[in-house]
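lol ok so funny story. i was supposed to be doing the assay writeup but got distracted and ended up predicting the structure for this chain instead. priorities right. anyway since i did it might as well share w the group, maybe its usefull for someone
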Amino acid sequence: MVRSASNFLYKATKHRAYFRDVKILLPITWSSQPHYQRPSTQSYEKANVIIANPHTQYGDDPYTLQYGQCGDKGRYIHFTQNFMLDDALIQVYGERGSVLVHEWAHLRWGVFDEYNDLAPFYAVGDTYEATRLAILQF
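and the output, tada:
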């Protein structure tokens, strides 16, 4: 998933960004393997991406916890074990690598979702415009 996401991010950013260094923390409950290193400064609390139980509100939906406004960085990306392992969910959410890049935009750049299944366009007079962030000035 991470390799696929890195390739997708690299193409989407016109060769400006990719994932170069990824560290994966395994739960301490897993049996230790001799080739695994102990984390040095990494911790679950500081993780950019977590895999945890489904959220009561979102179920297996991938999401990014965002407290701020559009443009403010998010806190973390949340995936579930079902999302990671159940290939049937690819039909629902799309390829896992592209989902990671979508959520990464929320996390790093504070991008909000710019789609609405019920009203994907705004009617402005006789013309239509795509849904997007509106900057309000007071």
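The longest helix spans residues 96-109. The first strand starts at residue 49 and ends at 52.
back to the writeup now i swear
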